Amino acid sequence: MRTFMGKLRMMSLTVAVVTASLGGLAGTTAAAPSEAYEWKNVVTGAGGGFVPGIIFNESEKDLIYARTDIGGAYRWNAADERWIPLTDFVGWDDWNKNGVDALATDPVDPDRVYMAVGTYTNSWDQNNGSILRSTDRGDTWQTTTLPFKVGGNMPGRSMGERLTVDPNDNSILYFGARSGHGLWKSTDYGVTWNEVISFPNPGNYVQDPSNEYTSDIVGLAWITFDKTTGSAGQATQTIYVGVADKAQSVYRSTNGGLTWSAVAGQPTGYIPHHGVFDSDGSLYITYSDGVGPYDGAKGDVWKLNTSTGVWTNISPVPSSSTDNYFGYGGLAVDAQNPGTLMVATLNSWWPDATLFRSTDGGATWTRIWEFEGYPNRKLRYTQDISAAPWLTFGTNPAPPETTPKLGWMIGDLEIDPFDSDRMMYGTGATIYGTKNLTDWDDDEKINISVMAKGVEEIAVLDLISPPSGAHLISGLGDVSGFRHNNLDQAPATIFTSPNYPSTESLDFAELSPNTMVRVGKADYAADPNAKSIGLSSDGGTTWYKANAEPAGTTGGGTVAISANGNRLVWSTSDKGVHYSTGGNSWTASTGIPAQAKVISDRVNPNKFYGFAAGKIYVSVNGGATFTASSATGLPIEGNADLDAVPGVEGELWFAGGSEEEGPYGLWHSTDSGATFTKLANVEEADSIGFGKAAPGQNVVALYTVAQIDGTRGFFRSDDGGVNWVRINDDQHQYARVTTITGDPRLYGRVYLGTNGRGILYADRVGGNNGGGTPVTNSAISPVTAEFDRKAGNQVNIPVTLTLNGNTLASIRNGNATLVSGTDYTLTGNEVVLSKNYLASLPNGAATLTFQFSAGAPATLNLLIKDTTAAPVGTIRIEMFNSNTSATGSSISPKFKLTNTGTTALNLSDVKIRYYYTINGEQPQNFFADWATAGSSNVTGTFSALNPVRTGADHVLEIGFTASAGTLNAGQSTEIHTRISKNNWTNYTQTDDYSFAGSQTSYTDWSKVTGYIAGSLQWGIEP
């Protein structure tokens, strides 16, 4: 299913904006009956979002908290090194409590913990912020509502901490507000708060006044205490506060907060990101010219000797250096070793982030990596991402970049106060850490690994659960999306090819579930040949770019694929609705407005539906034309989720509406949207999904995010919406849920997509009908094969099945199903593909998909070829590779072309083709290093092969200009060529079709082809 939430979602790594409708708290009337469900996160292993703060308790080992910008907070569980979520109780109406702007753990009473929550300080968040307080380490919370907003997802959110507990008198707390609201104080453990009127500077820095999101005053950045100026039960007297103000940014009180003054001699021109007090009396501060997490191009690190008042610039790379192109963010001191500290670059995007370490109070520094003969890097670390292998983001960058990166947006860095060897830091995608930090000081490598087990904060944009293959496919913000082969294990890779950060819409062909489509927004500036639409024929395991897309589009929007997979309808974000057969060309649809939300009928492959501004649109000709339905009464504003029921043509459900302007609820249609009936028993609904029918029922199970009987939650109906049961409880609400769907193979299984708490799945306590036991996939052997159409060489191809308890359901070639007994035979665990069927296939690559009764499909990649003697033409081509290394940054074939005919040959009529694999798609360069006819008269053109062939996904076509002249009968001409990628990453030649690895001089080579006026005259095409 697809979700059309009527808002833009603020995600952790890229800036978008929530404009969700807000209202009062849900009522407390008796809810619909409830059913017990067990809720779990779908595991990504890394979190997938920005972690702006990690907070160690100073008096109890292993008591650690992490805060996120939109996904709540977590507590470390040392027993299994897993983070436990603490804010899953946050519901639909108080969703803004999942934005955590600051967290404080009590150093006197470790059971106490506090959070300053609220997501935005502008109009997108209508609720004020709150201080949440707990006396049981976050298991339960009490709330104090503040008289202003708090911005957990606003600029400067990795500064901190803004909320602190007095280390001597823990009844006293301070909070540094945003928006010009200044400094606040509580003297009763956070129950009540009052503004510290004497504090002189509420901050004046605004990131960008031209944009509502960045136009608010950032305010106070951090608060820290000199613990030695107090005693147990007596308030600390000396307190430092950092303010987002480039002129006067550090303030001090020496009388317990009664009066304040700017610290004399302080640096100016930058903003203090973190201020940390060392036990030797030093105050260390990291500065940047931006507040982060995305900005900051210059910065410094300063040290204040609080006894003498002397400030010292201790920057590892000072702002005056041309090598300083970043601000400093994360800052940590070693509580066990005064004078030992670390800092992190806040915004060193290229080639990587950098960590710096000093053991002498900043007098000297070492860095975690440095150049060792550009572009090579000497590393003081190893990096283990086995817990989340997808953190490579599917990239293969050229040095000096590496994958995975150390991180980005490193706004917080912490050394365990009880263990000098343990360090953690937050990034834009995960938490990294090490357990052997002090090995750095012995010039040995530290071991960095993912330390985010249990953190799940991805923003989910779409979910689908097809009837075969993987049970779940996700479209995600910032990390593209996953095929989830196992819900309890991290995926190996994100969606790639096409590459873009966020997948906005997903769909699969109901009658051919392995056929899938997705859309996002590609980076056309980085790659003019990029595409925003991707297709898959293997259930989302691999993807390929469509050959074309609507002219001028930047992508995005919603996409639908017909029930049989033959037709695509794409409502782009900017160029209206278009339709296509296979994605090779696109034609504008008529009768439907731009930016309408589109879906497909799940039975009739010619039927599509659209929704926009309260109107339903229907197409019966594959999306070419749409006609507005006469249905009335649907919402014009707010959330809108339109879905078609699998197995029943024309049955639709619509969930949506807005609290500001009705109507709001759940509607049902059985006549292809001609009429809709509103369900009287559903007060509000925002998403609708379908799952396997309950035992004894002949209608799909319905799942909805809704308000029923005055209670917000997630509900299931087994009888078409007549009766509902609530399937969550008040401790499992997950703030604003973006999408919901059931599983078509497991009755009772439900999937949730959230805006910052990742993907959740749940099963009925006691088990689902059919069980929640993981399905064991089947396998085939071999997975690649070749078939020669040459007479006398044609043979059947046997394929051995490893069924693992499943049965073979079908074999498909694209949308065509092979006929058992004719195209293949099945005996026991062996399939034999008929040579007669294989001979009917065209030359080139073919993929046969083996579908089973359960589990993922298996694919057999075929190369159909014909080795009948190469054509007897009038040219001969000899070739060898001047570089025969297995890998290298260039491919260098040399050609000798001979005219074997009886008349002169115009070279401009000749084309030579060399076939190879690109090994990481990039723009390419062609060089004619030398040619008999003159290098300037030789041309080279690159093309991608579709479909790909064994040993070839690209081809280089070499030609000649008219100035090259003629080649007389019997004469030869030579061409020495070379190709490379723009970023000089390596090719692997050993699997290339045209590569001649054993030749060192010109030899007849039939694996390159030659053409005269388009007619094949030499060689065998792959």
List the helices and strands and how they pair.
Blueprint: E1 37-41, E2 53-56, E3 64-67, E4 73-77, E5 82-85, E6 100-105, E7 113-117, E8 130-134, E9 142-145, E10 163-165, E11 173-176, E12 183-186, E13 194-195, E14 220-225, E15 239-243, E16 250-253, E17 261-262, E18 271-277, E19 282-288, E20 301-305, E21 310-313, E22 328-333, E23 341-345, E24 355-358, E25 366-367, E26 369-371, E27 377-379, E28 381-384, E29 413-415, E30 423-426, E31 431-434, E32 446-450, E33 460-464, E34 472-476, E35 481-484, E36 503-509, E37 512-520, E38 533-536, E39 544-545, E40 558-561, E41 568-571, E42 577-580, E43 587-588, E44 597-600, E45 608-612, E46 615-619, E47 627-628, E48 639-644, E49 652-657, E50 664-669, E51 677-678, E52 684-691, E53 701-708, E54 711-717, E55 725-726, E56 737-743, E57 746-754, E58 759-764, E59 779-781, E60 784-788, E61 797-802, E62 808-813, E63 816-817, E64 824-827, E65 830-833, H1 835-839, E66 844-852, E67 858-865, E68 875-881, E69 887-888, E70 890-891, E71 893-899, E72 905-906, E73 910-916, E74 924-931, E75 938-949, E76 952-960, E77 966-967, E78 972-981, E79 987-988, ...
Parallel strand pairs: 28-32, 60-67
Antiparallel strand pairs: 1-58, 2-3, 3-4, 4-5, 6-7, 7-8, 8-9, 10-11, 11-12, 12-13, 14-15, 15-16, 16-17, 18-19, 19-20, 20-21, 22-23, 23-24, 24-25, 26-27, 29-30, 30-31, 31-32, 33-34, 34-35, 36-37, 37-38, 38-39, 40-41, 41-42, 42-43, 44-45, 45-46, 46-47, 48-49, 49-50, 50-51, 52-53, 53-54, 54-55, ...
